[in-house]
């Protein structure tokens, strides 16, 4: 069906990875869609400040609609799938759904099945969600990266000391593998003055109080898991707005992403577009673009979520996933350490991979291509 208009209901002004993706997709859709687009912004509060460029915010605001929904519109609901409520007065309703385990929690399955169809970023999700019980049509619409914004050329963060730099960018949660990155770094480099780990992490909202709690948890991890090891240059960055992410990636030699579960991995694809080499788990959504030879890929085993992981490090959705018996990937920590040491010793080889990865992403994973894929699928729905 070719809709008369599109209505996007999404957190386009938010700071989470989910919101960042919605924002980029909205702008690409506005450029590529052959019919009018309007936006209904959702209010989310998580992650660091966006501080988006004024021109970008103005483009989004120009798309905002105060008009009531029309019966000939298609509604694209880009949010948590449990919030999907169907057409809401529109001709059709499509949801955008993503998850990070080997399945989909049943609250999300129910939400998806209230829609006329669902878009997912990869074949991995399509297969997992179908097995979990999603019965409506599912279209694969890969997410993307802005290769004009994320480039190897440009400024770096001035406050980053001149050392060989590993970077970790994620919420301080179990599935992101912050404990694996921190353990591997300190076990390898605690006694070396020329290497550092930068961490851009948050628990909830990136506020000063939130970052203080992150710092306390890192110290607790050092004490309980690493015998009180206090050596090693580990820097918790203060609130680095999304506006400065390109400079952050350029300030690092290697991005660490030893995740246990990942839906798409914006920091991974953005780092590679910046030609910053990546070490990442070879599982889940990122396998759509993380091909062998473009990054250092970690082997893993699928395991249940341990019962002793506190809710603070899981969040409500993974807590439910644990209760439903979902599996996550446990990357090989020894292989992570091998890859980190090899990057430190033979950096040129890793950099060449990242340069080739950027070429691959620029050819196949732009946001404009994501918008075009969505339009093709919608018109066949």
Written overview of the protein:
The chain is 36% helix and 18% strand. With 381 residues, it is α/β, with parallel strands linked by helices. The protein folds into two domains: 5-144 and 366-378, Rossmann fold; 164-364, Glycogen Phosphorylase B (Rossmann fold), CATH 3.40.50.
List keywords for this structure.
381 residues, alpha/beta, Rossmann fold, 2 domains, 6-stranded parallel sheet
Quick structural gist:
The protein has 12 helices and 14 strands. The chain is of the alpha/beta class and 381 residues long. Helix 5 links the parallel strand 7 and strand 8.
Which SSEs are present, and which pair or pack?
Elements: E1 5-10, H1 17-32, E2 37-41, H2 54-63, E3 73-78, E4 92-96, H3 106-112, E5 117-120, H4 123-132, E6 138-140, E7 164-171, H5 178-189, E8 195-202, H6 208-225, E9 233-236, H7 245-250, E10 254-257, H8 266-273, E11 278-281, E12 296-298, E13 300-304, H9 315-323, E14 327-331, H10 333-345, H11 347-364, H12 367-378
Parallel strand pairs: 1-2, 1-3, 3-4, 4-5, 5-6, 7-8, 7-10, 8-9, 10-11, 11-12
Antiparallel strand pairs: 13-14
Helix pairs in contact: 1-2, 1-12, 5-10, 10-11
CATH topology of the largest domain: Rossmann fold
The ordered H/E elements are EHEHEEHEHEEHEHEHEHEEEHEHHH
CATH architecture descriptor of the largest domain: 3-Layer(aba) Sandwich
Number of domains: 2
Q: Which strand order do you get reading across the main beta sheet? A: 2-1-3-4-5-6
Q: Mean pLDDT, as a whole number? A: 92
Question: In what range is the share of β-strand residues?
Answer: 15-25%
- Apparent shape: globular
The CATH H-level homologous superfamily of the largest domain: Glycogen Phosphorylase B
Query: Radius of gyration over alpha carbons?
Result: 21 Å
Question: What can be said about the biggest beta sheet?
Answer: 6 strands, parallel
Assigned CATH class of the largest domain: Alpha Beta
List the total number of helices: 12
Distance between the termini: 6 Å
> Ranges with pLDDT <50 over ≥5 residues?
none
By secondary-structure content and strand pairing, the structural class works out as: alpha/beta
